[in-house]
């Protein structure tokens, strides 16, 4: 059938479609435009109403985030040694296989504490460095297990109101000094500045790391929270760098090819078990040409086996397996004497290039990032150093202290990294530190020892403090650009961390915390309240926090800090910018009114 005008029924007039389509598109575009204006204006008005504007001398306005004032309650006194991610109260949830219960297991957000961790009864401000290396107040670390169980090894002893540290250890009951003297004879590189950074796995009370400080070597002392009770807390109370950690199923939070030396003194890590993954992890974090030092089983088993509750045949077998594994990882025996054996990691890639595909352990494939070290599972494969970095090995890198200001080769790994940016960063932090010392006269004296830079880039803050009686833990966010290899190449120490979670340390272990734009960078992920409560947990009473932040966040930080019993004052930056401020805060000493 057809219409009376002759067109078929059901066929739309094509001449009418085009103008209708145009009108529809125009109307849609106009509605989006009007809606966009309305929404942006609505957001703008909401933004203005929810914030306070600060007028600068030039008449410009700087927005400031406002939060509700809150007074945080005290935690129960049973939480005085609370370590949220390594909490013994939560161990039963995790298996004992490979000691996974000692790894980081952080509580979910709904279980996080919103209270202030109290100090022990009788807590006193810590003894000042360097006296603190040899003694600490008993009431600050009131744990007797080591004193009782290790008394014959002279780890520590209690006298009156103090713990004394004679410098003993399981493999050096007569003193750590004599032990390290022998080690230096075996490794001359410990004397000439070649070796600067070290890691001590299973550190006890960190006497080895404490002794090395006088020899120009900076050590990360590593131990889990276990039945030894507060090894890491003792170390930090003494003013010696330390962190909670265990080699179990995940990589340690350090980049590859970073430490100049690794040490195990009867740390009882089963190096040859589980496909050799523990020794493979030491290989990963050790710099090419770096040294691995082992004392204790199975070293010197011919003389020692009777005291190890084993047989000489078992110890001989263990030693042969260890030597075979080390050879397969391109380690070579460097030196040995009495209870100490030293192996050296291959200084170049010649050995790795000769490994066949049938070799076990195999080389890691390209899918495994060498520096990925935040909740990264251990794998039984060899991380081969990148051959393009020929000046990062121990035999090629500058010796200490020249390496502190020499531009690291690995700065080229990330976008924007260059010699000029490195020098600018160095110069900037020298000015900032000079300014900080005017704001906090205690900085640069023995009143401040343990310091953390919570979000470093190149380690410039720490580098500017190397002539002061401090050590600095440089933290690089696991979500930020990985600049931690540069920190280690400078001869400094640090760790990866995600500030949405608690840090791997005990309460009251740092004298000063420093951050530079941390909330600007992480506020979209991490709630400010929890970051500040974590800062309060790890900061010592009377300790300082230097918060360098966008003016937008400063007032909100000060409000929360007041609820944590901190005293804060706002200061100008060196250049007097209104867009950035410095908040100087000091934690007050208070005692718990709650009892467990």
Automatic annotation (TrEMBL):
It is a single-pass type II membrane protein. InterPro entries: Put_SAM_MeTrfase (IPR004159), SAM-dependent_MTases_sf (IPR029063). This is Methyltransferase. The chain crosses the membrane at residues 20-38. It holds the Pfam family Methyltransf_29. Coiled coil: none annotated. The keyword Cell membrane does not apply. GO terms for biological process: methylation. It comes from the Eukaryota. GO terms for molecular function: methyltransferase activity. Belongs to the methyltransferase superfamily. Its EC number is 2.1.1.-. It is found in: Endomembrane system; Membrane. Keywords: Glycoprotein, Membrane, Methyltransferase, Signal-anchor, Transferase, Transmembrane, Transmembrane helix. The keyword Transferase applies. One of its GO terms (cellular component) is endosome.
